[in-house]
Records
---
Amino acid sequence: MHSQRRSDTPMAAYQVNPDRSTKPVGIKKICCIGAGYVGGPTSAVIASKNPDIQVTVVDYNRERIEAWQTDDLPIYEPGLLEVVKFARDGNLTKRTPNLFFSTDVDRCIAEAELILLSVNTPTKSLGRGAGHASELSYLESAVRKIGEVAESNKIIVEKSTVPCRAADTLRDVLVATAKPGLHFEILSNPEFLAEGTAIRNLLNPDRILIGSLKTPRGLEAAQALAAVYGAWVDPDRIITINLYSSELAKLAANALLAQRISSVNALSAMCESVGADIDEVSYAIGLDKRIGSRMLKASVGFGGSCFRKDILSLAYIAESLHLFEVADYWRSIVDINEYQKDRFTRRIVRCLYNSLSGKTLAVFGFAYKKDTGDTRETAAITVIDNVLTEGANVRIYDPLVKETQIRHELKNTTARLDCAEKQLTVCESAYEACTGADAVIILTEWDEFSNQGEPVRRDSGHGRKTEERAGRKVDWARVAALMRRPMFVFDGRNIVDAGALEGLGFRVECIGKA
Ligand code: UDX
Ligand code: UDX
């Protein structure tokens, strides 16, 4: 009865124990395909911690690659520039450079022993599964390219979030396109970094997950990748599991994180009716160690490139397995998120006497969260679209996001209409945005918008609008002097001390507070 092999128990399945004293077996060159929010920071940290490994990030977007070669990086991430410069600019640090950015995809693939796939996997927009399933065509074309140019065996690592059993698809494409006799071992090594804290997450990860086949070659590949992380991650944080469990674990982690936010947002609606305070409710439930305090902050709705896409992908997979109740369960998380964004807009309209026509709303923040310039799936798109439809004039200020990007994000909404275009102004400061405004709507929790806490400290770098403003807190008394009466603040992030603002004459409406 006790004859169950150790490898049959899930977690002890294959304990990888990278020996810090040995160099990664065989891995001297890594190629990362995709120089985005995941590929760039991940490669920079791997290179900085593995001076003996040459890490090259490739992308078909020349402009992006060129930007990675400068000090004006294509993405803003606290601490990123320092890590990139450390690994990339050896001359400055007396360290041999080992981080490179290139558009020479073929050469870099051909030379590497290990390839990280970090291309984007957005929601499909065409055909079967459109609006739900993940689009794998970028991944497919990346592995086709690998198949075409490879002259030696490779370890191929899924960094991008993928549907379950994507590894089988990739293997199939490789077998069909590659030269006979070559071997490609596919690993799943999902990234759990959150934007705004990516470098911290990469340097001190909760866990590194490596999924592999249980074959000797699969295990050997997992060992090689574990050794790369072993340069700075504690061995007991590096866990290896079945390839398909790893693929599913990434989708599941994002779904569970988003589920917490939707749960709290659903409760916030109840709080507003029963006179409870969602921040107090979250605090109280988060003290239970089984629940924990993180990802329980009520908001206007979650955004970002991952949550919505990954939940829809999970639901689509469930549906294709005929697990319709399971699919409905996951999809309800996205439904509540849409509801929360609409509910927030309805509250604005109600408070402003049921008409926004001819009124001016100052929007503070467009990014989907603070400390990033990323605007993918930001709740701001929906809220701004809704208030434009109601006839409001909208004046947007975000400390990091540029006007072109804001207009690009809004181009498929009401703002695409000529009349709505005229209702929209993108401002260079919070004060410019709120001049003559009837209300301020806080959509991103940038520290400078809060009227509490420490002064803001932020490293300089990528695209800050002006050095003078960077790091300054908004002076709410000055805001009050610029606005029309009565003046409202709709805090979609619960970052202001409402009492203090009321003292300045504002009427303040927060999420989940009556
Ligand atoms: C990542 C993951 O890959 C995605 O699956 C996950 O869900 C979110 O995080 P991210 O790094 O945020 O995506 O995407 P993005 O910033 O768009 O970067 C992807 C890069 O891949 C882009 O620079 C794009 O130019 C590049 N790319 C895309 C290629 O080089 N080749 C392609 O065929 C497609
Ligand atoms: C998420 C996951 O956290 C990360 O592990 C995964 O690799 C990628 O997806 P990210 O989207 O970058 O990361 O940021 P996250 O901090 O999770 O926030 C996502 C959204 O939820 C943001 O819009 C944020 O403002 C919102 N949020 C987050 C809340 O509304 N409340 C919270 O308590 C936390």
Note: The chain has 19 helices and 14 strands.
---
Amino acid sequence: MQIITTIKEMQAFSKKLKSEGKSIGFVPTMGALHEGHFSLVNSSINENDVTVVSIFVNPAQFGPNEDFNKYPKDHKGDMEKISSLNIGAVFLPEVVEIYPKGFSTFLYVGGIGGILCGVSRRDHFNGVATVVTKLFNIVMPDRAYFGQKDYQQTVVIKKLVRELGFGIDIVVCPIVREEDGLAMSSRNTYLSDEERKAALILHKALEYGKMLMLSGREENTTSIKLKMETLIKSDPLAAIEYIEIVGTEYLEKIDEVTTPSVICLAVKIGSTRLIDNIVVK
Ligand code: AMP
């Protein structure tokens, strides 16, 4: 496994593979790797000749009052975990390599970036689209792997790839959960023991919402969202940012109970903002 830190070397690595007719699978991450990341990596390993994983905490997708500076970093642990897998290269650039002095070319994803998580994280998806575009140009993959955990992100990336004509297959992998249902996330390390228990309310509420959607007893999504809200509010550590029921492809709000749809939510547990979702079909 090669550890590559510069754009030039990464492009040379990928160009060589391409000249040999090899397919490249790409898994972009922000590090502090867990089983959720590894499920993406394993899918890529199974479906491509060579897999490239990037580890880059992208400042452009964090707002001024967010956790960029304290985002969990575990380079040593990441390298140990990753070195046992059949990965061709890890791309590990410094911030100045991706955003050199004077960098000013940013993508704007439009309205899709202003709903759900985009309401509180105004430029988040523009920052994601910018770095993913740059990483695609550097790694030149045939396929790129993203987790359903960040549902809105997968919709934004698929749209980006379609609209800018990247010619990269976007593969969305299912959410990996802890045994008790909590969706794995690098941010779970922020939770105290008490908060960790409280965080289970996200998955419980999603399962409850899904059950109501499929029960045949509910006609509109407003009453389902209210019932989910009541459940979440029963936990004093939980503060709801949003609960929405939207279409799976375009994330448009759904009023009447219809499937397929996806229930998305963001909830703060103490000071930690967690997101989760469940597809109903
Ligand atoms: P991150 O490092 O949090 O930016 O995540 C990198 C990629 O891993 C993204 O495509 C995430 O959606 C995906 N991912 C993170 N957590 C999970 C999970 N629990 N299950 C599946 N994919 C995940």
Note: The first strand starts at residue 2 and ends at 4.
---
Amino acid sequence: MQFKIKNICCIGAGYVGGPTMAVFAKHCPNININVVDINSDRIAKWNSSDLSELPVYEPGLESLIKKYRGKNLHFSSEIEKKISEADLIFISVNTPTKSKGIGAGQASDLRWIDASARQIAQHAKSNTIVVEKSTLPVRTAQTIKLILNSPDIGSKNKTFYVLSNPEFMSEGNAIKDLENPDRVLIGGENSEAIQALISLYSNWVSSEKILTTDLWSSELSKLIANAFLAQRISSINSISALCEKTGANIKEVAIAIGADKRIGSHFLNSSPGFGGSCFKKDISNLVYICKYYGLEDAALYWQKVIDINNWQSNRISQIIVNNLFGTITCKKICILGFSFKANTNDTRESPAIKICSGLLDEGASLKIYDPKVKKDMIQKNLNNFQIKENHKLEGGDWCFSNSVYEAAEEADAIVILTEWDEFRKLDWEKIAKVMRSPAWVFDTRGITNIKDAKFNLINTWSIGDGSN
Ligand code: UDX
Ligand code: UDX
């Protein structure tokens, strides 16, 4: 079977689907790309003429949307119609952790994958290529195939070809990662279908970077890549605590160990813990799969990666309270950064949520500033705590600030939670003048000029810095 791809449909206009399809639109000018989503508000934002309203913030995304939207890139809620026109369909819907039933708290909730497969079975034409983009438990393609080939769901006499093509880009670097990936992974059974997808990527990715495998290796590789990355963060974070106790410095240690090519220098920044939609969900899923296959020790090993992540954020909350004389009731704390990492407006699983909630529980008043996360999103994440629009804080409440300096005013402490560039070059002289003394800074990313803060008589704590 020779495939001619003229129309692509992507189900799911989220942090993965949106940027990925924007880059496809750029490099495949003769292909019409339709991104569809059940969430019509999200689609309206993708279509907004004000590009600052796009639902996803990514450096470089606005200019791609400006250039290709309305040409060969379209966002709509006409799911059935766009599915029926497509030669190739990406499934890029969310696969959160199950909140109830068998495997609750660990297994992936595949209801949206199931729903998407049913929509495709009903509305797609025969010989459509169906591509898993979402990160999925190994062997999900089997379920998708069963649904697509079920005669009860409307797919009589239709043939589908299922491929796995997980996306490895990371948020905040999405466009760069998509433009220049370390590898593109395509798993499948039908060589012509695999070739059709390769030919799309070949428009901008060199052939030696395109790896092909069987379906199951491709599905599993994505889960394992995320697990290995997260494991590095838990490893370095566990050592950050040891550095603080022993007088060593985690940055120096990271440089020294990272110089060994077998270890490598990337992904060794200690932090308040990993956040984002993927790591916790995917490792929980890995733990579940290991247990399912009776591999209890393997499950315990990976569970520890999550446990250390929780320990790290709890440990930091405790350090803040201890240093502020054991009580933070009615103290004002300035929070710098709410997103789970820099260069994104995404707050899913952000360590900021847990740390801020902990401080609010202890009775602190928070003044929160983030360059890209909007007030409504913070409010959604801190929904148990009161927002004060008038900035008259009384304890256990918070307000939204429009700048670092506004947030620092009258604060007893500053807590840096996200590594935004803006926080790397703070004017500590200016800040010291507006804070309440004795003032503290807690740098949970180790990015600020701590010497400068000290020089301006601010007490300092920086992650993994044993000279604190
Ligand atoms: C998600 C998963 O979290 C990740 O594991 C996977 O690799 C890709 O999909 P992301 O794009 O970040 O990543 O999720 P999200 O921003 O929540 O976007 C998913 C979109 O799918 C949402 O906009 C949702 O409305 C949409 N959706 C969901 C559909 O259009 N149809 C459905 O049936 C279900
Ligand atoms: C991750 C994977 O990197 C990507 O390949 C996959 O497709 C999706 O999941 P993402 O979650 O977007 O990407 O961002 P990433 O850069 O991996 O950061 C994840 C979390 O780890 C963030 O909270 C970040 O702050 C933290 N992190 C990262 C550290 O604490 N230290 C580091 O050295 C790197």
Note: The pocket of uridine-5'-diphosphate-xylopyranose (ligand 2) is lined by residues 167-171, 226, 229, 233, 267-269, 271, 274-276, 278-279, 340-341 (CB under 6 Å).
